[in-house]
UniProtKB/TrEMBL annotation, chain E:
Pfam families assigned: Fer4_8
Keyword Iron-sulfur listed: yes
Name of the protein this chain belongs to: 4Fe-4S dicluster domain-containing protein
InterPro entries according to UniProt: 4Fe4S_Fe-S-bd, 4Fe4S_Fe_S_CS, HdrC_iron-sulfur_subunit, Helical_ferredxn
Stretches assigned to the 4Fe-4S ferredoxin-type domain: 10-42
Organism (species): Candidatus Coprenecus avistercoris
Lineage of source species: Bacteria, Pseudomonadati, Bacteroidota, Bacteroidia, Bacteroidales
One annotated Gene Ontology cellular component of this protein: plasma membrane
UniProt keyword terms in alphabetical order: 4Fe-4S, Iron, Iron-sulfur, Metal-binding, Oxidoreductase
Molecular function GO terms recorded: 4 iron, 4 sulfur cluster binding; metal ion binding; oxidoreductase activity
């Protein structure tokens, strides 16, 4: 019996940019799409960010544009997958809102979680008041009060927090932190033009269009000082200022500086919420916990499990445009898969 | 006072807290390009003094930005002003004129 | 400073510490400079808490200082330590506690190496057999004496006569903790509290009523550096590093420095004397005095009411009297430099810039 | 023809006499000051030149050609040349003829120097002679010539483009007043002479004018005021002269004498330089010539304004201007006066440079490359055979394609050669000289000289024109021939040591500044390139070629500005649609390559590719 | 990959201590030696990482490897789980094995260290012992230290030490049986050979330098000649 596209269900788990984009694409192809989001709103991490690199586009605008028209997509916020069963063909997905869907295909767009910066104990996040994360700073930019920010004269950005670090089990580069740090460094200079801003980096990975310009602008226009050296240790002095130790590796000398604010560029960690699903469906994961696609080059959206697809940062750190492209690619893959059924 | 035969040595660390940025800022006003350096090392690699002296323009810029002025000036004194660095700099920094500007600004005490 | 944040980290670095039955290995440095601390430790655990801590007179140095001065191969230290384990096995103990932090670090490292390279352990079995005709099995638990003080901290506080509280102000004493580098920096997971915010001394100090002072250079090495101190030509290294720590802690005006490492204890004490005698500078609250530097054993014993001179606090160069006064410890000034039975041993010469009583 | 007044005097001559006296005294003092400021050595040269009859002839010829006839401008822009020479030569002839008339008709009045100037006022025509009419004709003729020049000058103010100038100098207030005076002098003179033509006589110009005016001007009251006006204009002009561009009129002759004496710039505002900057006529030829002028914002750096600033001692702006200059030498090449502005700027750089301690102790660690053993043709040279030492220089180190090609050609020619700085070497010193740091360059010159002497070479071969210039001008390498590879390869071809095939490729040759204008090497590279392809010329070439923009001469020119110059220079080179651009300078090659739509090659590369 | 590098890599401390360095500088940032000496642990790891024998030999013959204080602060921070301090120990071991240590001023100090420390271990069973730890060569022992030294037995008796006596307790006399064990352990584990090697090569070096053994000892123990400190000239 031939089924129409509308009679086929696709369940997308994760209502971030990847989930939204894929759901719209699949909806346009005529499938019945169920988009499940754990939080009380769609958008994932994008919803928490103020502005996006490299051009400073407001994240709200981007998100607003994406969610302006969701078509016939059936989307549920504050909803989790409570049970997942593999059927002969497709999957039975039971949601926390009581709904049970027979899914012909599953798309995981579960994204990432921000690295818990307090795990880098030497930086004292959660211990020293003036140490915050990139996400906290975005809150501040969005207008949410972050008392730690105060009126700083000396500000530091630490790149690679929880990335490229075997000690915390994340050997990979989180890809977006360099650009985020430079973006935030410029933004904070806009707020506090007299402040001295340092970026402590290991390698500046300015790979995208416009990123290098942003870096150049940070140097030339904003006078951000780049120190090549990973911060090794942070401590607090009597007045609550932060005493930072690093090596200025380009001169080969130890470097000391006292700061009023230190921003940790927390990287991307794999989303632990996806672990039970991965276990149930016996999906392969990589040693750092991210889901392993069938082939990172030729089948990046496919899993080892029939009818299960991936898009976005659930398979590793991605930028927003990459995530969106993957979402659209996954929609195409799912379409092909369902047409072959 | 007792002579123990050893003593306390000052730290070799760069202490940015003690670095008075006035002169560096003066340099940056005169030569705004100095801020554009991304420490690629092209200048040092192509320098005809490489291997013969410790001149290293990348380090000169860095050291000036870290308050190690004497060290930087010592390096600068080896410069022949040949301009090779100017040709190779990927950021288009006028490295050649940086040298006289550095001496001009840092010589006056 | 957010204490809750530290507690979160401490919760991740818990160490299982058996309550009783230990084979005790002494520290070379402590025996030389603060033997009273080891005696107090054994007295407290054995006589006050009734625990079984055994010392075999046949045990020797582990050779850690010689090893870290790069004069002996690792196998030599491994085999010496294997011999200590053999003595422990012989005495019927399964838990090993060392008095010295260098020893603790070396023991931990060796056990770790054997874990990852069983062939090396096998070789050491062979070598020990060849040398001493001995066999050994590894201990179930390896502890440092400060781990024990931490473990017994509530027992100690129960018997506290002079808690770490300033009797004049009622405020907790400001205590700087200094952890020997080899206690947790190599293997943070083998310590109480990890390498960044070690709990081992902080927990003890808090239990005894004091408050811990965190200063920027807290984590910095005392500067022993083995060959950097032992060879006179290098000693500036050692002095300079201690100096850096004191400069950093100065604004906090600590009343006391507590250490878990015999070497650090000696250096933080003696370098204050050298700094005073070369630059005239003294640290701490009481002008002309320094900051007393005591080991966790000494602090515990003092709190529990041991006589400071029985403890051997007169062997410190920095006078402990200002601390004793703050704690309200009863002591006889005149007995400080007396021998057994009040034997007159004279008194040490008075340095120019730092008072010794 | 005889005196109209017994006294031979009228009050109206006073303005002229005052003005003339002022300017003469001013000039005398100026000349003495300049001579006094010359370094002793140069002063000696100057005085020696005055007793050298050969130099007298040269001086005379130069003064006539440059000061009166403006042949240099003629060659470049005929209309402009006519404008200049008509005024200068016409006026000069009026003065000369006035004197001759005086000498002929009232010889005893020659001693009053105003008399010949106002000749027509003081004399009356007593009889018509052929001689008198001839002089009247000549006077009117030259007055007409001057007037035509003045008319052109007025027109030029409005429409400079017709004269082939895209931009012209903007004038300052004293300049403008003096200019209006100058414009007015000759029409007023015409009027004055016309009004007196009834008494003093006239020719084809003045006499008809007289008839014309006498129709409605019945009395003679207007005669004297006109002469007053004429005299006052002259007087005003002379008094203003030192403060205007027209100072070049008297200074240039003096400059020619100094230049021919072999004097060089040693201080930006003393001695010779004073003569130079006062000789600048502010004609503005250098504005269009300057490669920087592609951008409006750079207009203020034009040499003419630099000279003006220097006259006003505006050091800060002078310095800025001097540091910006590319030192391409084009403004010097086009300057009708030949103001050596590059060297003035160089000396200013040296004067204003912060005293920086130089530590070149490390020079002793450089040695000759071990190429003697690696070069295949480096066997011991036979007696009398030349031994070539090839010095690539810093810039060629960045363009190994050149040194490789040079090696290929030399090997093919079977030349005995050695590579002096294969593993890097000491800079030639030219960049420092360009920066005005001659004293620091001396250390390089000394060390390099030592190395070159050590090698036992008889020929020093250079591929970099920057090095070439300094080796030629500042090194003392007696007994060693210094040669640029363009010249040397040309020689090899002519001697038949290498033979070339013609690929027919359409080539354009870029004259590097230091090689062309700097060392006057133009024909050798063209001869060789003509043999390997079809050589076409750029729109501007030879001494008018446009700097590539990479010049080490400029200290402060930004990367972006340099790029604009490069693009402009490339446009110029691509004028005749060549297939390939050939240059003979590593710096030009490096500068052109990234932006050129056509392949850019080095001369040596092209030669190496087309050897049989 | 060179032979020397291979030999280094056979040392388990190097295998454990050197994965691949990313030059982040966290080690140098906290290194007590880097602020004092002309020393940078990151650079050392980097040189070893080049696998260039020539460079490694230069390192083995230099003062550089002897600047480390083996505090292991670097180990805690390395994001690549390297242990620069362990790399140093391996380098020092090899420098002694290959006899290169006598080439550098700081390396020559091994003579004094081996003599005193191994002497203490084998003669007394302690690394440090009052018989060899003297105020004269340790003036920082202070006035109290001098007093202790002057009343050694009395002071130790007073604080409950068992100095020089049999049975348990601090500074007890280590039984012959134990000392013999230590000697045998030194013999079978290469400890004795190591000490002998250091002494032999040092004696040769002393001869070369025209010094008696005692003079050589005093020289290496007390004197500093080269530029070792990393002070900035300001």
């Amino acid at each position: 019996m031939e089924l129409t596209n509308q009679q086929r269900n696709v369940v997308i788990i994760g209502g971030g940019p990847a989930g939204i984009e894929a759901s719209k694409a699949l909806d346009a192809l005529g499938y019945t799409v169920f988009l499940i989001e754990r939080e009380n709103r769609l958008g994932g991490h994008l919803g928490r960010w103020d502005r996006l690199f490299p051009y400073g586009t407001p994240a709200d605008d981007v998100l607003g544009q994406m969610t302006a028209s969701m078509g016939r997509v059936k989307w549920f916020t504050s909803t989790e997958v409570t049970q997942l069963n593999k059927l002969e063909r497709g999957y039975n997905v039971i949601l926390s809102n009581g709904l049970s869907v027979l899914a012909d295909a599953l798309l995981l767009t579960t994204g990432f979680t921000l690295f818990n910066a307090s795990k880098k104990e030497e930086y004292g996040y959660g211990i020293y008041d003036k140490v915050i994360t990139n996400a906290d700073l975005e809150d501040y930019f969005s207008g949410i009060p972050v008392p730690a920010v105060g009126n700083p004269r000396r500000i530091g950005f630490v790149h690679c927090v929880g990335s490229r670090d075997e000690k915390v089990g994340n050997r990979y580069c989180s890809k977006v932190c360099c650009a985020t740090a430079v973006k935030q460094a410029c933004e904070i200079k806009q707020q506090f033009p007299d402040a001295v801003v340092y970026c402590f980096y290991m390698d500046l990975r300015m790979f995208g269009r416009g990123y290098e310009d942003m870096y150049l602008e940070a140097q030339k226009k904003y006078g951000v000082i780049f120190v090549r050296g990973r911060v090794s240790e942070v401590s607090e002095d009597k007045d609550g200022h932060l005493f930072v130790k690093a090596e200025d590796t380009l001169s080969g000398k130890p470097l000391r500086v006292t700061l009023d604010l230190l921003v940790l560029m927390a990287g991307m960690s794999h989303n632990r919420a996806v672990d039970p699903i991965a276990r149930t469906l016996a999906l392969s994961t990589m040693e750092d916990g991210f889901l392993k696609p069938k082939d990172s080059l030729t089948a990046a959206q496919a899993s080892y499990c029939t009818g299960v697809f991936y898009a976005g940062a659930c398979t590793g750190p991605k930028t927003l445009p990459e995530t969106m492209a993957e979402a659209r690619a996954a929609a195409t893959n799912i379409h092909e898969y369902l047409q072959e059924q | 006072m007792i002579d123990f035969g050893y003593g306390i040595s000052p730290s070799s660390a760069i202490n940015l807290d003690k670095f008075d940025r006035t002169r560096f800022e003066e340099l940056a006003r005169e030569e705004p390009d100095v801020l554009k350096c991304m420490a690629c090392g092209s200048c040092a690699a192509s320098c005809p003094t490489a291997g013969h002296s410790d001149m290293n323009l990348r380090k000169v810029i860095l050291l000036l930005g870290r308050g190690r002025e004497d060290e930087a000036l010592r390096m600068v004194s080896h410069c022949m002003l040949c301009g090779k660095c100017l040709i190779v700099c990927p950021r288009g920094i006028n490295t050649r004129h940086l040298i006289p500007s550095v001496t001009k600004i840092y010589q006056k005490k | 400073m957010n204490y809750e944040g530290k507690k979160k980290i401490w919760s991740e670095f818990q160490k299982e510490i058996p309550d009783d039955k230990y084979f005790y290995a002494r520290s070379c440095i402590r025996q030389n400079f603060n033997p009273g601390a080891e005696q107090a430790f054994l007295d407290i655990v054995r006589n006050r808490f009734g625990k079984d801590f055994y010392e075999d007179p046949l045990h020797t140095t582990c050779g850690g200082i010689a090893y870290h001065s790069d004069t002996t191969p690792e196998e030599t230290s491994m085999t010496i330590i294997a011999r200590q384990f053999s003595l422990m096995n012989q005495a019927g103990y399964r838990n090993f506690v060392v008095s010295c932090v260098t020893s603790f670090g070396l023991h931990t490292e060796i056990l770790q190496t054997w874990e990852e390279h069983p062939e090396i352990e096998a070789k050491i079995h062979e070598l020990l057999w060849k040398a001493c005709k001995r066999e050994f099995t590894k201990p179930d638990f390896l502890m440092h004496s400060s781990d024990m003080m931490y473990h017994y901290r509530f027992l100690i506080s129960e018997q506290a006569r002079y808690p770490l509280i300033n009797v004049h102000t009622g405020e907790p004493l400001k205590v700087v903790e200094h952890i020997g580098c080899h206690y947790s920096k190599i293997f943070p997971s083998k310590s109480v509290g990890g390498a960044e915010y070690p709990r081992v001394l902080a927990g003890l100090v808090e239990a005894l009523g004091g408050s811990v002072v965190d200063y920027p250079e807290r984590r910095h090495c005392c500067g022993f550096g083995f060959r950097q101190y032992l060879v006179k030509a290098n000693r500036g290294y050692s002095l300079t590093n201690t100096y850096k720590k004191f400069e950093s802690m100065e604004p906090f005006h600590p009343d006391l420095i507590i250490t878990n490492c015999p070497g650090c204890n000696y250096f933080l004490d003696r370098w204050q004397y050298v700094i005073a005698e070369t630059s005239g500078k003294t640290y701490g609250d009481t002008p002309g005095y320094g900051i007393p530097v005591l080991s966790s054993e000494e602090v515990s014993a003092l709190v529990m009411g041991y006589d400071p001179w029985d403890l051997g606090l007169q062997m410190h160069q920095v006078a402990v009297e200002p601390l004793l006064d703050k704690m309200g410890v009863q002591y006889d000034k005149s007995r400080k430099y007396k021998g057994v039975g009040g034997k007159d041993l004279g008194i040490p010469a008075s340095p120019a810039n730092i008072r010794i009583f | 023809m005889k005196d109209r007044f017994i006294s031979g005097y009228n009050d109206f001559v006073l303005p002229f006499v005052i003005g003339m006296s002022f300017i003469l005294i001013y000039l005398a003092i100026g000349i003495i000051r300049v001579i006094a400021q010359l370094p002793a050595q140069d002063r000696k040269k100057f005085f020696l030149s005055l007793i050298n009859p050969k130099l007298w002839i040269i001086n005379l010829k130069d003064i006539i050609c440059d000061v009166l006839l403006h042949t240099r401008i003629w060659k470049r822009k005929p209309l402009l040349g006519y404008m200049h020479s008509s005024i200068a030569f016409g006026w000069f002839m009026l003065i000369v003829l006035g004197h001759i008339e005086t000498w002929m008709f009232v010889p005893d009045r020659l001693s009053t120097f105003y008399y010949p100037v106002f000749f027509r006022f003081f004399v009356m025509e007593t009889d018509h002679t052929i001689g008198g009419s001839f002089f009247f004709f000549l006077m009117d003729f030259f007055l007409l010539i001057v007037l035509s020049g003045v008319f052109l000058a007025m027109f030029k103010r409005i429409r400079s483009r017709i004269f082939g100038m895209r931009r012209t100098t903007n004038n300052q207030l004293p300049d403008r007043i003096a200019m209006y005076c100058l414009w007015a002098i000759f029409p007023v003179r015409l009027l004055a002479e016309s009004f007196t033509a009834g008494i003093a006589g006239g020719s084809f110009l003045t006499r008809p004018m007289y008839w014309l005016f006498s129709n409605f001007l019945t009395n003679t009251y207007h005669i004297l005021p006109t002469w007053w006006a004429y005299s006052t204009l002259l007087g005003t002009f002379f008094v203003l002269l030192p403060f205007t561009r027209y100072m070049h009129i008297p200074t240039e002759a003096f400059l020619i004498v100094l230049r021919n004496a072999g004097i060089k710039v040693s201080h930006p505002r003393k001695g010779y330089s004073i003569a130079q900057i006062y000789s600048c006529s502010n004609c503005g030829m250098c504005i269009d010539a300057c490669p920087m002028m592609g951008q409006k914002k750079n207009l203020r750096y034009a040499t003419v304004y630099f000279n003006r600033l220097l006259r006003r001692r505006n050091w800060a702006r002078c310095e800025e201007s001097a540091d910006k200059c590319l030192m391409c030498g084009k403004c010097v090449a086009v300057c009708p006066v030949g103001v050596d502005s590059c060297n003035i700027k160089r000396s200013l750089r040296g004067l204003k440079a912060a005293p920086a301690p130089a530590d070149y102790g490390y020079f002793s660690t450089y040695s000759l490359s071990e190429s003697a053993t690696t070069s295949p043709s480096s066997a011991e040279p036979a007696a009398g055979q030349e031994k070539i030492l090839y010095y690539a220089g810093c810039m060629t180190q960045l363009t190994p394609v050149i040194s490789k090609a040079v090696g290929t050609v030399l090997d093919r020619a079977g030349v005995n050669w050695e590579f002096m700085d294969r593993d890097g070497g000491i800079c030639c010193g030219r960049p420092l000289i360009l920066a005005g740091r001659d004293e620091r360059a001396r250390e390089m010159i000394r060390s390099n000289t030592e190395l070159i002497r050590q090698s036992g070479a008889t020929v020093l071969l250079l591929s970099c024109p920057i090095c070439y210039k300094v080796f030629r001008e500042n090194y003392d390498l007696k007994g060693i021939r210094i040669v640029h590879y363009t010249e040397y390869f040309d020689e090899l071809v002519r001697l038949g040591r290498i033979t070339l095939r013609n690929s027919g490729e359409k080539l354009v040759y870029h004259d590097p500044c230091e090689l062309g204008r700097g060392c006057k090497v133009y024909k050798e590279p063209r001869r060789v390139l003509g043999a390997v392809g079809e050589l076409v010329e750029a729109e501007k070439h030879h001494d008018e070629s446009i700097c590539c923009g990479g010049s080490l001469g400029s200290l402060t020119l930004s990367y972006e500005d340099r790029k604009d110059i490069t693009m402009h220079s490339l446009d110029n080179l691509l004028y005749a649609s060549p297939e390939r651009i050939v240059t003979a300078c590593p710096l030009c090659l490096k500068t052109f390559s990234p932006y050129s739509p056509k392949k850019v090659s080095d001369f040596a590369e092209v030669v190496a590719q087309n050897m049989n | 990959m060179g032979k020397i590098y291979e030999r280094l890599m056979s040392d388990v401390r190097l295998q454990e201590g050197l994965k691949a360095c990313i030059n982040c500088g966290t080690c140098t940032a906290v290194c007590p030696a880097a602020e004092f000496y002309r020393y940078n642990p990151k650079n050392i790891v980097n040189i070893v990482q080049t696998q260039d024998d020539e460079e490694i030999i230069k390192l083995l013959k230099s003062d550089t490897i002897w600047y480390c204080g083996e505090c292991m602060s670097c180990v805690t921070r390395c994001p690549r789980t390297n242990a620069p301090g362990q790399v140093i120990i391996a380098l020092r071991t090899l420098s002694v094995e290959l006899g290169y240590f006598v080439e550098s001023e700081k390396g020559r100090q091994q003579y004094a260290l081996a003599k005193v420390l191994c002497g203490n271990v084998l003669n007394y069973g302690y690394c440090v012992h009052p018989e060899t730890f003297k105020y004269a060569s340790h003036p920082e022992y202070g006035t109290v230290g001098k007093w202790i030294e002057d009343h050694l037995q009395d002071v130790y008796d007073r604080v409950g030490a068992n100095y020089g006596k049999s049975g348990p307790g601090p500074l007890r006399k280590i039984a012959r049986e134990s000392l013999d064990d230590l000697q045998k352990i030194f013999d079978v584990t290469g400890g004795s050979a190591r000490v002998e090697k250091i002494k032999d090569l040092s004696r040769k070096k002393a001869q070369e330098m025209g010094l008696s053994e005692e003079e050589y000892f005093n020289e290496v123990f007390n004197e500093t000649h080269g530029e070792h400190l990393n002070q900035q000239n300001q």
